[in-house]
Amino acid sequence: MTTAEHGHHDYYIPDASPWPIIAMLSVFLLLCGTALAINDVGFGIWLVVIGLIMLSVMFFGWFGDVVKENLTDCYNAQVDRSFRQGMLWFIASEVFFFISFFGALFYIRNIALPWLGGVGYLGATNELLYNQFTAQWPSAGPDNVGGGFTPMGAWGIPAMNTLILLTSGATVTWAHWGLKINSHRQLVAGLGATIALGLLFVILQAWEYSHAYHELNLTLNSGVYGSTFYMLTGFHGFHVTMGAIMLMAIMVRAMKGHFSPHNHFAFEAVAWYWHFVDVVWLGLFVFVYWL
Amino acid sequence: MPRAKARIRILSLFTLLFCSETALGELGINFPTPAAPVAQEIYDVHMLTMRITTVLLIIVFSFILYSIFFHRKSRGYQADQHFHETWFGNWSWIFVPAMVLAVDLTIANSAQKTLEKIWVVPKDEKLMDLKVIGHQWWWEFEYLDHDIKVESRYTPEEKAGDLYLREVDKRLVLPTNTRIRFLHTSADVLHAFWVPELGFKKDAIPGYVTETWAEITREGVFRGQCAELCGTWHSRMPLVVEAVSQEQFNSWVEEQKTLKVAALAEASADKVWSKEDLFEKGKGLYNSKCSACHQITGLGLPPAFPALKGSPIATGSISEHLKIVLNGKEGTAMQPWNSLNYLEIASIITYERNAWGNDTGDVVQPADVNAAR
Amino acid sequence: MSTATLAPANDHEHHGPPRGMRRWLMSTNHKDIGTMYLIFALVMLFLGGASAMLIRAELFMPGLQLLEPDLYNNLVTNHALIMIFGAVMPAAAGLANWMIPLMIGAPDMALPRMNNLSFWILPAAATMLMLSFVVPFFPGGGSQINTGWTLYPPLSLQVGMSMDFLIFAIHLLGISSVLASINIIVTIFNMRAPGMNLMQMPIFVWTWLVTAFLLILVVPVLAGGVTMLLFDRHFGTSFFNAAGGGDPVLFQHLFWFFGHPEVYVLILPSFGVLASIIPTFARKPLFGYKSLVGSMIAIMFIGMVVWAHHQYTIGMSLAAVSYFMIGTIIISIPVGLMVFNYIATMWRGSMTFETPMLFAVAILLMFSFGGLTGIMLAVVPADMQYHDSMFVVAHFHYVLLPGAVFGLFAGVFYWLPKWTGNMYDERLAKIFFWINVIGFNLTFFPQHFLGLAGMPRRIIDYNIMFTEFNMVSSVGAMIFGLSHLLLLYIIIKTIRGGKPASARVWEGANGLEWELPSPPPFHSWTTAPQIK
Ligand code: HEA
Ligand code: HEA
Ligand code: CUA
Ligand SMILES: [Cu+2]
Prior knowledge:
The complex is a heterotrimer of chains A (291), B (373) and C (532).
Chain A: H1 3-6, H2 19-37, H3 44-71, H4 77-116, H5 124-129, H6 157-180, H7 184-214, H8 223-255, H9 265-290
Helix pairs in contact in A: 2-3, 4-8, 4-9, 6-7, 6-9, 7-8, 8-9
Chain B: H1 3-11, H2 21-26, H3 37-70, H4 87-118, E1 128-135, E2 138-143, E3 148-152, H5 157-160, E4 172-175, E5 179-186, E6 191-194, E7 201-204, E8 210-215, E9 220-225, E10 238-244, H6 246-268, H7 275-294, H8 312-315, H9 318-327, H10 342-354, H11 366-372
Parallel strand pairs in B: 1-5, 4-10
Antiparallel strand pairs in B: 1-2, 2-3, 5-8, 6-7, 9-10
Chain C: H1 2-5, H2 21-25, H3 30-59, H4 69-104, H5 112-134, H6 155-158, H7 162-190, H8 203-234, H9 248-282, H10 289-303, H11 318-330, H12 332-346, H13 355-378, H14 380-386, H15 390-420, H16 426-453, H17 467-496
Bound molecules: heme-A (2 copies), dinuclear copper ion (CUA) and copper (II) ion.
């Protein structure tokens, strides 16, 4: 790091801030409420509602402060780097969250199910407990938990969704180019297209779920296939939704002219996040739908 | 427990490593003396690694102790500021790992050899198959080759005395000098079969079957217990193996078969039983099979285990009562009681509906159970 | 408040800490947050210790003395989780918060507000953990958590609502660690004083860098695992249910993929503390800086691929167990190299034995012992006997207490004068050391024999053949436990006063943290120090 880069003022240390503690209280209420609600304790749901409201207030407040500080030029290049690196490692941790689900899928398909079916090391399992059962993917296990179902094909909506997400990846990049050449119109148009594609994706996904529930009898309870299918696609869908909300926030800020070709960390953070969601989808498409 | 033995055990605490191994085993400081070749192999590898690590520990300790005694300021020792720049400092990062690696490979090598001998159940010969099913909190043994089942439960303290938690009502009887394949599984949660003298510990996993084997080489009684946390009474799942000669084993098998036939005959006879008979039968069965959870007093251990005294089910409709005993309740410790025959179920239910002040006066006959199933 | 946050960045030097509760609740100062972490950890140590005392009191004699079986297992679960997530990790994070900016010449942590968040999530998580402990005592609260800290299904599927509180508590703890780790990584990469490259950082900073990476990689997997557990419990999925094609053992893989690296998370920061203490009191440069860095990185990578040594008994194939056995044994190379380097740093030094150094020596001796029993456990055939016996309990307390907890004690004594500006009472501290170490060995050494003789772990009641050693162990535990009251007294006494400490508290101390006065100014390095 050179002194020139070190900039005109020191590393910005924010003053005491109420937002972290509010964040803490809101997740605390949210999670306690959820724990109670899923055990049929009536007032749990109210804690969830209060928690969610506080959480959104907190996000507005916290990010609002960051935006204000940024606009009043509190941040030097070093602070900007801290933000970038922070976002990068956050995404890395998210990758490992998904790895746990992909790992579970891999383990179940390639290790546990074959055992149940009498192949491999624990062969006696099949002989003694399930001599009627042969393992083949997709499966709802020896007891066919959840009843017979039709697995989700890869080449209908999922393939279309792949295309949609890939295109949306391209549109954010196009928006980024716009930002770099200071073309406000290209930036906003690019973001708008990305959000539209993201929403389209979510809608199609929802439609696919309802199709699965109503016509394929493929539910969360359909044995391991249903479990892994819905957990992977569900958490991914959740991330897409979050990503889309983040994109909307960024779009509002872009329209207000918050970004300049040299100062747009928030935009890039969201774009990275979007690409990450994109890449996870490719993994899903290959391992959940296709193979 | 004789006092003297206790004292010796404490005294010999620190003399463990290089002493007579079997004596230490008996004192409860080391593994008990193996009763099967597999256990012997394990024992040997255990002693080997323990000795290697002891030597390593002595080396590490000597260096540390030497330096803290001699290299201290109070003795006027001057620090060698360039020690880390000597050839030793420059190259230790390569030869220390090399030495450690050599030790590691020695250990791994002997362990690997042992594994190859013991890990896979030798299937070529005639094996005796024994299915071991863990339940909360008792063991079920199914002699697959003889069509016999044995249920084994802990003996309460009043009866077991000093052997409390090491004694069961029905032991696992096994022949010596026969290869036995243990097929472990579980009816509810994880358990683990562990009899130190036989060597292997293996988890019982619901829905899966894991295997171990043993060939018991000496007669005797070997005690162990469940070694995987399985809930409330994990501490009350002792295992007792009684190893007997092949002849004794054969006659034991015959005896069990006769008993089984008699019980079946009794249960299947379309006999209508008197309330008193059912109640008496039910009391014995309840106290051995249900009391672990619902307690002898019928008060249970709420909230984990509901009281049956005054319970809406045990005093309400008979069909609900039958249903929960026959089918269990998924996601709780209450399992379906498939191991009980109709007579047994009928008598337990009759008992429950009339004991502890549940004076419903109801009598449930085996035929009623048959109809409900 | 938002006007305050908009105050121009430059006039920080003009005002000290914010006053009153704002200083603590809303802190953005690494030292204040570090202090809160450390106090929190101390409170948790006492809570976790209190449950350990109940456990040991129950095990003093055969029979059911004080507790019900479910309560016993609930205490065991709570004890382990509080100690690991509430005491050791926060204490290490407290040291990181305090020391990393000082050691690398930074004004503060890179993301100060997030720093506050990662701390304040902890009390929320701890509250949920406590709730999971007490909920069953309320009407309708369901059964107690009797699963042990490993939460293996199907047993954890049988537990009532308290398990859900626990699952969410684990999520919160995970969020806190991940955020703290991100902050530490960014601080280390981005906030070093000009001219300090990575290979000039103190080893303590390195240990935390590696630890933070480990946390980022493995904590999310635990979060995923307990999420699946939650879904199996409430939403009808079949991840851990064979009937639906799942496998209870899958949870064990996910848990230990986190759990094994976690033990290095616990140990590494303490080893970093040793790398500061030993050279100081040996008055001699650290031996083998590069190989220490290399060992840590090796520990990180090898540590992530050997998790199944906790599951040798689940029925793996010969090839799989051989792989996990060899991988596990190989870890002795980097760990051994670290231990070796510390011994070589002491070798031919000019040593004095103030309390931090006493702890350091005790750590080397006792951790080596615990590590070597770890090697014994790694040997698959032998582990068929040791597994889930008291031998394992003895092993991990030997590595956890000397390895992690004593390292933190050593660090606290070493830096307490720097933090408070007062010297602690050396005589009392030495008394504490001796009682503590003797009590510790009395508690856990006999447990090896119990395990070998056949006593399983996690049992409330045992046969009389195990009585004597359990009595010794329980008496030891009382001595050990009470000794911590002395620790508390020493710390409070030092905070309240004492001989003023100079900037370079210890004769042989080296490093940037000693160039600031004791206690350091509110904003540590407002101008970056010059690195030679
Ligand atoms: C800080 C925590 C910590 C640390 C550092 C370690 C370190 C090690 N552990 Fe331990 N372990 C735990 C905490 C820890 N462990 C816990 C909490 C459990 C139980 C969890 C539960 O079930 O609840 C456990 C359980 C556990 C098991 C499972 C036992 C079972 O359940 O059956 C095994 C098996 O392999 C194991 C092995 C090891 C090994 C090989 C090391 C190695 O890293 C040790 C390396 C160190 C040395 C070897 C000593 C120093 C080196 C030398 C002196 C050089 C010379 C050495 C040689 C040539 C060998 N540990
Ligand atoms: C960092 C982690 C850590 C730490 C520091 C400790 C510290 C201690 N542990 Fe723990 N322990 C674990 C991690 C840890 N443990 C884990 C992971 C398990 C496995 C759990 C499982 O099986 O799921 C376990 C399990 C475990 C068991 C086995 C239970 C069983 O399997 O049945 C036992 C039994 O002796 C035990 C004892 C102790 C004792 C006596 C201490 C002592 O060091 C505590 C000393 C500290 C204090 C006592 C606090 C301060 C003092 C006071 C509060 C003063 C007043 C107190 C009185 C004297 C009354 N622990
Ligand atoms: Cu069965 Cu423990
Ligand atoms: Cu491990």
